[in-house]
Amino acid sequence: xxxxxxxxxxxxxxxxxxxxxxxxxxxxxxxxxxxxxxxxxxxxxxxxxxxxxxxxxxxxxxxxxxxxxxxxxxxxxxxxxxxxxxxxxxxxxxxxxxxxxxxxxxxxxxxxxxxxxxxxxxxxxxxxxxxxxxxxxxxxxxxxxxxxxxxxxxxxxxxxxxxxxxxxxxxxxxxxxxxxxxxxxxxxxxxxxxxxxxxxxxxxxxxxxxxxxxxxxxxxxxxxxxxxxxxxxxxxxxxxxxxxxxxxxxxxxxxxxxxxxxxxxxxxxxxxxxxxxxxxxxxxx
Length: 285
Ligand code: PRT
Ligand code: ZN
Fold this sequence. Notes:
Blueprint: E1 4-9, H1 15-24, E2 37-39, E3 45-50, H2 55-60, E4 66-70, H3 71-77, E5 82-86, E6 92-99, E7 114-117, H4 120-129, E8 135-138, E9 154-159, H5 163-167, E10 170-179, E11 181-185, H6 191-211, E12 213-221, H7 225-231, E13 239-242, E14 248-256, H8 260-269, E15 273-279
Parallel strand pairs: 1-3, 1-4, 7-8, 7-9
Antiparallel strand pairs: 2-3, 4-11, 5-11, 6-9, 6-10, 12-14, 12-15, 13-14
The protein binds phosphoribosyl ATP and zinc ion (ZN).
């Protein structure tokens, strides 16, 4: 039987979210952890656990049909594969940082300076785009200590909260790339694999939609029902049911995570009571 072979990170920052995404898509990993490969009971999929840096190559070579990897790694490795979906986790940015006390005057500040990074390809592209010549010092880890030990005047590294930079006396001055985990695909998938990928993608999109939305139930006085309904778009339109208590209705709807707090406040102002907010497991539209 045809299986979709997927490569995910073996351990590290993308591992938990990758496995959770598979789980939320109804794909349960069999034969457990600490393996190079896992099978699934309920979806024709085979999972390979690899270092993230190797995933683009494996997908290009069709050892894996698809893979989950950060955009930072994908663009740095520059392998032949397509991004098919942004997955909404592993968010970070590849940023230029310099000494806290240095005055940053624009990209020209870096001219003739040494930049330590694990992303030489992306840094060179960014320097070229900005017409700056600088010396790239490629190092594979602990990039943030390079200025402190006199190896470089600037660094380009991944940042999420910014606390690593702060603790090392550095400040962020430019964003080279915004990144998140993506699903990548071999460029020449066979027909059967492509069909499995479509199925998998359909599930991923339902999970993503559900994560971005909440189910809301509330009680509304009938005389303010129209006002409350206008605040709640719902998938088609909100469900309205009469309550046992005269003059009141129960209203059910779906609202987006982004508008959530704003809408809840306006609902309360409009007289809504007993507002319940429930996570959605899957959302199929
Ligand atoms: O062993 P393997 O090669 O598979 O893993 P790895 O050590 O190369 O990667 P890992 O697990 O550290 O990161 C995997 C992916 O997670 C990265 O390629 C990014 O796509 C994504 N990601 C998201 C991050 C971060 N956020 C992040 N903050 N990767 C690394 N960092 C590091 C950064 O390098 C710096 O050292 O965290 C530090 C900064 O964090 P803040 O919060 O202090 O700013
Ligand atoms: Zn890595």
